[in-house]
Each structure stands twice: as structure tokens, then as C-alpha cells.
Amino acid sequence: MTVARAVMSVMVCTLAAACSTPEGGKPTLEYTVGGCSEESENTRAATGGEVDIIGQGDTIHVSQKLTYVCCAELELTTEQEDSTIKLLEKNIGEICRCLCDYEVEADITGLSPGVYQVEVWGVEYEDVHIPELLGQATIRL
Q1: CA-CA distance, 28 to 12, in Å (whole number)?
Q2: 28-64: per-residue pLDDT in tens?
Q3: Could you tell me if 77 and 29 are in contact, meaning their C-beta atoms sit under 8 angstroms apart?
Q4: What is the tens place of the pLDDT at every residue in 79-90?
Q5: In this structure, are residues 8 and 31 in contact, taking their beta carbons and an 8 Å threshold?
Q6: DSSP labels for 41-98?
Q7: Model-level pTM greater than 0.70?
Q8: For residue 38, what is the enclosing H or E element?
Q9: Domain ranges of the chain
């Protein structure tokens, strides 16, 4: 099984790069996307499946079972405006006909205490797939 991993704040960092929280204490995103665990019989790509969003300490944790095309390479980023945090999923790989189930785990850390509206948007691919709201929750840290 292949696992993609990246650390995100202002830019995406690869495994070979050292990343740290930017000055000013902005939140940091760290995530994993498990490789295709099994082919799915769903007929529609980018189904959110199960999306769980929980908060603990200064961290928001997102756990998701995502059905999407088998040949995808998924990249996650965040956007924050006031107390709304959007987790954005984008396919930077290919498009194909088969569908797979992926396990997505993401931690958004370095957040100040407060109430946040967290939204999971996925999966964008060029002008073929537009992002859909796959899950949301109000989280108090």
C-alpha cells in the first residue's frame, strides 16, 4: 500500500524538505492518504463516505473514507477565513474509470482556543470535478 504524506502551512513540503510552523503561529496541516485499499462498486466519483471531524487540544483531526478514481494522487490544503477552516482535496494525478476507497487522515494543529466551523471540500480535478462539501462540523478547542 502506498502512503502519500505532506506537511502544509503556506506551501506544500515534500518528505525530503524540512517544514515548520510559520512565524505568527499559523495553523499547520499534516496528512496521509492511504493507497487504494480496494476497488469500489460506487458509480460516482468523489463521494465523501464517512467524514469524522474532532477537536482536541490545539488540533482538529479529520478522518475520512473517500471513494475516488484509482489513479488519483491526492493533495490536501487548508484555507482559513476568521473562524472557518476549509480542508480542500485536489487530485494532482490522473483520471481513470476505476474507483477505489481511500483512507484520509489529516491534523490541523497550532490553533488558538475558540470555536471553528470546519468544512471538508473534495475532490477537485482541473475543470472536470468541481469541489463538493463532503462534511462539516463545529469544533470547540
Answers
A1: 10
A2: 999 999 877 665 555 444 555 789 999 999 999 999 9
A3: yes
A4: 999 999 999 999
A5: yes
A6: --SSS-B---EEEEEETTEEEEEEEEEEETT--EEEEEEEETTEEEEEEEE-S---S-
A7: yes
A8: none
A9: 3-10+27-140
